[in-house]
Amino acid sequence: MGKVFVIELNKTYNENCLDTMKRIPTHTVDLTITSPPYDNLRDYNGYDFDFEEVVDELYRITNPGGVVVWVVGDATISGSKTGTSFKQALHFKEVGFDIYDVIIYEKSGTAPPHKNRYFNAFEYMFVFSKGKPKTTNLLKDKKNKYGGTQTFGDVTRREKDGTLTNKGRKTINEFGIRTNIWKYNNGKGFTTKDDIAYQHPAIFPEKLVQDHMLSWSNEGDIVYDCFMGSGTTAKVAIENNRDYIGSEISKEYYDIIQKRLESLKVWDKFGG
Q1: pLDDT computed for residue 177 by the predictor
Q2: I want to staple 217 with a disulfide (CB 3.0 to 4.6 A). Which of 27, 31, 34, 179 is the partner?
Q3: Mean pLDDT (whole number) for 247-271
Q4: Which domains does the chain have, with CATH numbers?
Q5: Predicted TM-score (pTM) above 0.85
């Protein structure tokens, strides 16, 4: 018997994400991509969240083999980094998630450096999995220096019985799997072309969301964002043939999401 949904897909709910998640059946979501408010680095209209309860609910609604991408950083307070990102990562592990990968989100445009501190140009993108990820479509866009050329010697393979099989020369692929440092251009015109999105104080680069969506999910999967913000996860999900569920507690930001999606006429893909 299939899941009985008490929540509508391809919709963002203007409410606390805990209220949304309580209506999502257990083992439903294939991928969550989100960036929570952290260390008061941005003004999110005064809203806060119960971190531990959110993680508990994320674990419940995530499918076995599903993934949560959690994008966070650390503030510097009284001369010391808060360590919020690491504390949160360890709690995900305590709840039952695996820390499958830690990817560095390198930003091209950031605030001026502190006079006694190195220029801060990154955030952490923790990739938590509920067991072994069911989907790992690793992106192959790292250009190989010797791509297109052949190896100098023959390639051999050791068989189960211990013998060697000569496979001949191998042509080196033009592109290989990228590293775990992902760089994105930030700022108006780079993060997104949608002017309305910049009414939100902290927006995802669309390419960042798409790269994670392609890496950890397949077409037809369900993607969730518990802090939907300006609606980037929803937009990218629609453009890549994924279903989505979103939560956004702020009415101001919820209205941005609705206007952004309506102005792009992306609803047409769903006959809306």
Answers
A1: 93
A2: 31
A3: 77
A4: 11-139+178-270 (3.40.50.150), 141-177 (no CATH)
A5: no
